[in-house]
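Re: that chain you flagged

S.,

Sorry for the slow reply, it's been a week of failed gels. I finally had a moment to sit down with the sequence you sent. For the record, here it is as I used it:
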Amino acid sequence: MHLTTSRFSASPTLVAATLLCLSLVPATASAQPDNFEAAPIEYSKSTPDNAIARLQKRLDSGKASLKYEDHFGYLRSLLETLNVSQKSQTLVFSKTSLQRQRISPDAPRSLYFNDDVYIGMCQGGDVLEISVADPKLGTVFYTLDQLEAARPKFVRQTDNCTLCHASSHTQGVPGHTIRSVFTDRQGLPLLAAGSYRIDQTSPLEKRWGGWYVTGTHGSQRHLGNVVYRGTSDPVPTGEPDEGLNLAQLGDRFDASGFLTPHSDIVALMVLEHQTEAHNLITRANFGTRQALHYEAELNRELKEPADKRWDSTTSRIKSVCEPLVRYLLMVEEAPLTAPLVGTSGFAEEFATLGPRDKQGRSLRELDLKTRMFRYPLSYLIYSESFAALPQEAQNYVFRRLHQVLWEEDGNEAIFKHLSSADREAIREILLATYKGLPANWHDQTPSKQ
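Prediction finished late last night. Pasting the structure tokens below so you have them in one place:
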């Protein structure tokens, strides 16, 4: 495969036309009327405060710089500056984005991520696509021109990205969707065959259509590494098992134009968990703020005390926070029936990031034998986005976590995947590593809430 290294000047119109915005789904879902453009959210009008916005300030002041390379543009330098590991690289070859003309099985799009930032690059692309978890605004989208400049400029994108990235597929808020699709030899999705929206509850057999996957997974099957022919009933163009348990992708495409030759199976698993968790954190944030805003307006109109709490407000907060609690605790996670082993070293690196308790335990420890994490509570509970949840939302989440982890929930069927040992370990890890837990967490007597 010939690797294109030329760059093209991208006018605002061209950027809008080719914008990818970390898009992993065909542009078929219209935005829901969740009204996050109105008060109190005012998504497009509000000034972001996130890793990219802060980096831009440092670039503008001369306190930071990005190094440009002929082929990768600003990619490598941006990853280093934002502490995004190259080992997180995953590769998607389906044309399920607005830069579809640059994506194919011969030229997949590369994605990189850490806990807060997602970065995408197309071979020969005009821009890098960046999305970032903003503590107040949910996912915020940017592009970075791949032309060398004295001071690189991240350009925020709103309307173009939220057409796809603020729909029922993203919990109705600005967020991400990961899709698994049947893809032909050119990279076009065979939409008549259907597709799957992927998160941690998706069986492996439905995952990774249109993606490359490196790593071993035993007898478990998936849809990755394979192209199809047909329409509503597609069949692989090669042997049915040729995409399984691949250690390398050298016979699929020329990997010399990529930072690594991997599309690590463990990185894919973590990516799928994390994107939906971010969506649910944003939904809890927006929904709680909107409920409180409406309540304040209602109290003012009815001349009620400003602190009057309506049952409808409590109900609205519960409706957006309870799904977050269940997702953080890995409810209905798809079980693994054989061990997963990656190829890039992502799993080992991810597990070292901590924090850890005195016994050396961490919510980042991976199991990868029967489930994703050894201790099934998401590490995103430490994230800046979670910390920025309104106090009412945090109160709800921690109250529910306390009930579940102290086995006081009363609805054990939902949390039956958590053994008593799991619950004890998780609460001990949180007590040792999470600053700002409610006071009753440090009381070993049963909760009275």
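What I noticed first: The first strand starts at residue 90 and ends at 92.

Talk soon,
D.
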